[in-house]
Structures are given as structure tokens and as C-alpha cells.
Write a structure and sequence with these properties.
Strand content of chain A: 15-25%
Number of helices of chain A: 7
Oligomer: homodimer
Number of domains of chain A: 2
Order of helices and strands of chain A: HEEEEEEEEHHHEHHEH
Number of strands of chain A: 10
DNA sequence: CGATTCATTGATGTCGGTCAAGCTTAGTGG
DNA sequence: CCACTAAGCTTGACCGACATCAATGAATCG
């Protein structure tokens, strides 16, 4: 598969200019970043990093979706993060990465070699500050997800995932505010790995939600949520 | 209950001077921090913050153990973080806190009012840099925990928790490197809330591990692990 | 048009939850 | 000092939600 890489002439044209790790940078700082950045593309299914790999670059998701997963020696898999456009990939000050990183769709990354980027964290305050904000947000999201994994039923887990994706997708391209339409960027297996379930349970709960009219889909990937609040009520987090 | 608050004359005497958010600060930066810091103590069982409270201060655990928990409307509880000495409490740039924070043991905090502290993050680079490191470490830990919650059996969960506590406690006061002795800072109920289990299951698995000699305890709180590697083997993360 | 991957659905099994009873320990007051 | 209480823990009996095993269907691709 070949990937059309949009030619981004400069950071000013970049779709994630005002959300990514560079969003607080002024003109000068951006020039510095621009000097060390390069783009890389991955097609759906490709592994970007294997757990244990030396972490040669960090960067931002420009478009596409990537997942972070951990695998146990006996093969059990748990997804521990889902990276959408503008999310940051990698861990400054660490020599290796401890999760697999997989492109769930075609992905384009804006990469920085790790060492020079670490230098920039020390020297250009706005990079470090933004990265701190983003990391704190991700920590909040991870803790939210711990509640999902530890205490929710299969049905609530599915509803939570669908609601989260619908909400995050909607933030990228807003709809009418009541319902939502989106293309699931992940397979049933990936959903199962995210939710700590089996694919059979995911399938059954999707069918149940469909039968009850909370979601609709024909081809398993294009999901319609007629009423986001009704779906939210199934997540177990409403009063 | 009254709490003996050790009089810490200055940061130089502080037990967490070289681990906490202040650890990279030089003399001048430390003076600035010292000007806005104050100590607060909480006795075991006290709630430090309720979810939704305005976040007036942030700070470091000087001694003791605190937990972060989320509660669902119907009462289900999931612990999402365990703070040991030197860990950071609070979220800069957020007006409210979204988890309950409870002192599991007597706790002493080194507090900074949030607003001035946020100013310091912008102006004294070593505070922000250290906080970024610590937040990235916490994110790694949260992701590790997602694997525990999503994919491990009850037995593996218990072994993982005991191994984690034993290891972290040992780092604070090292033993012989093979076994470990420690006082569980949390009740069975808190363990259950951390692991996404019920207290009955925790109790059963503790009894099972005890019967098999992997752990030993008389009074439910003082745990002996004769062989940390043997316990590790029960976590499911060994080859 | 097979071959392959992904998803759905059904039948059965099991791990951990629920319900319930009893035990241990610590604290309180007579 | 001992009775009384309450909180925390343990253990057993039973049950149900989700996993496992298995068969079939739908979509994609060479």
C-alpha cells in the first residue's frame, strides 16, 4: 500500500499546529523544532515500535490512529493507550520503549530524534510546558481507564469506549451535538484488547446495543450513535 | 489521634529532598520553593481531597501513604493511584481534583499553594522538568496497572500488588535483596479497590499464597516475602 | 473462486462475585 | 479486669457474567 503524504510546507500549515507538543511555541522556537523534524508514514497494521526497542525518536501523530499495547509472556494482550492526531508518541529520557506501538490506520508522524528533542525540553520552555500538560492529561485518561477496566461490566465497557471515541472524534470534526457518526479506527480484537474482554464478548455486546437502538451499523466499522446522552447513560457514570 | 510532626528546619533536612519534585533544584530555586511551602498532616483514614473539590494546593508526600480513588454513582470504587513518600499530589493547571485522595496511614505533606506553584513551573525550569519526569513515570505505572486490571487473574493481581509494594518499600529501606518484610499500608478493602476485586477474593488469594509459602503473615498487616523472585513468578510477567 | 481475515452466534465451563456465618482484634466503659 | 461492641478479616455455599470452544457467515484479495 502506498501512502499519500501531504506536503506540509511548514509548521504553519500543519493540521495539529495548535494542539500538539509544539502548540505553545513562538516563531523562534518553531524554527528550532522545524530544523530537527522529519515526517514518517506507516500503513495500517505496521508496527512503529516493538516493546524493548531503543527509542530513537519521539513525535506527534499528524493523522491516523496508533495504539500502545503490552503483551504478557503467555500472549495475553492489553492495550494501554490510543493515540489520536496531535497526541505525543514516545518518552523523553528513556532509552527503550516498553510497549508495542502499532498503526491502527494509516498514520503520519512528525518525528524528532530523541536526543536533540530532550535538549529542547531543557532549553525551550514552551515545549516542556506543553509536554507536561499533555502528559498530565494522558495520566488523567489512564486513570479514567483504570476505572473502566477494574469495575465496569462488559456492556459498560463497550459503551464507554464508543462514547470516548465518538467524543474525541467529534472534537476533531464537530457534528450536531446530539448524535455522532464515526468510523471505528480499530477492529473488534483491538477493542477487546483495550477493554480487557474477548472478541466474542465485544461482538455480543455490540449486537445487544445495536438491537436496543443505542448504536447502529451496517458494515461493522461505520458507527452511528443517534443519541450520545443515551449511550453515556449505559457507561455507568451517570447519576 | 495526635501526630508528631518532625520539625524540619529546612529542605536540606528533608527525607525526600533528593527524590521529590524539588530534587533538581539548586540553592536559589530551593529558597523560592521554601518561601511558599508549608506542612500539613493527616491521620490515617482522613480524606485529603474529595472528588470535585477546588484544588487549592499541590505538594509532596513527605511520609505516609495516600490513595487516589474514583467512585461510580452506584458506589463501585476503583483505586487509581497509590502515593508513597516523595510522590507528587495534585494537578497543576486544573481548578478541581477529580479523584478522592485519602490518607491510608498517617501522612505528612509538603504543600504549595497551587497558583504560586504554577508560576514556579513556568519560571524555575528544574521544577517543571522534574515534574515532567515524575508524571511520565506515573503514566508508565498507570499503564502497567492497566495490564494488571485488564488481563490478570485474581492470584496474579495479588502477587503483582504485593511485589510492587515490597519493591517500592525496599527501595526506601533496603533489605537483603532476596526476601522482604513490610507492613501493608492498606486494608483488604483498599487492596480490593486497587485490584478490581472483592475483599472476599483478596482474602482467599492471600490465604492461598500463605498456604503455599509464597508469603507469610500472622497479624494480616506485617507481611514477609521469603523469596521475591518466587512471588514475581506468580505475577504472570515472567517468561 | 478459493483463501484469508474478521465478525457473529451458540453451547458449555469456570473464575470470581454474592450472600451469609463466624472469627479476631482493638477499643470502650462498667 | 472483663463484657460488650464494632471494624476488619476469613471461610463456605452458591450463582452468574464472561471466557472458552466451536461452527458459520461476511468481506476482502490475489
Amino acid at each position: 500500500m502506498t501512502l499519500a503524504i501531504p506536503r506540509l510546507k511548514s509548521c504553519e500549515d500543519c493540521p495539529i499546529r495548535y494542539n500538539a507538543v509544539c502548540s505553545k511555541c513562538d516563531r523562534d522556537e518553531l524554527d528550532e523544532l522545524e530544523a530537527i523534524k522529519y515526517y514518517r508514514s506507516f500503513s495500517a497494521g505496521q508496527t512503529i515500535f516493538f516493546a524493548g526497542d531503543p527509542l530513537e525518536f519521539v513525535g506527534s501523530i499528524v493523522f491516523g490512529v496508533a495504539s500502545l499495547t503490552r503483551t504478557m509472556p503467555d500472549g495475553r494482550v492489553q492495550m494501554v493507550g490510543l493515540l489520536l492526531p496531535s497526541d505525543f508518541l514516545g518518552r523523553p529520557h528513556r532509552e527503550t520503549i516498553e510497549t508495542d506501538v502499532v498503526a491502527e490506520t494509516d498514520v503520519m508522524l512528525c518525528c524528532f530524534r530523541r536526543k536533540p528533542f530532550e535538549g529542547m525540553i531543557e532549553q525551550t520552555p514552551h515545549v516542556g510546558q506543553r509536554l507536561l500538560e499533555m502528559t498530565l492529561d494522558e495520566l488523567d485518561a489512564a486513570r479514567e481507564w483504570m476505572l473502566v477496566l477494574g469495575r465496569k461490566t462488559a456492556r459498560e465497557k463497550i459503551a464507554s469506549l464508543l462514547h470516548m471515541i465518538a467524543t474525541r472524534m467529534a472534537a476533531l470534526e464537530p457534528g450536531d451535538g446530539v448524535g455522532a457518526n464515526f468510523t471505528l479506527p480499530i477492529t473488534r480484537e483491538t477493542m477487546a484488547n483495550y477493554l480487557g474482554l474477548t472478541i466474542e464478548t465485544v461482538s455480543r455486546q455490540m449486537s445487544a446495543l445495536k438491537k436496543e437502538g443505542l448504536i447502529a451499523f451496517e458494515d461493522r466499522r461505520d458507527i452511528t450513535v443517534p443519541d450520545l446522552d443515551a449511550l453515556k447513560a449505559e457507561t455507568g457514570e451517570e447519576d
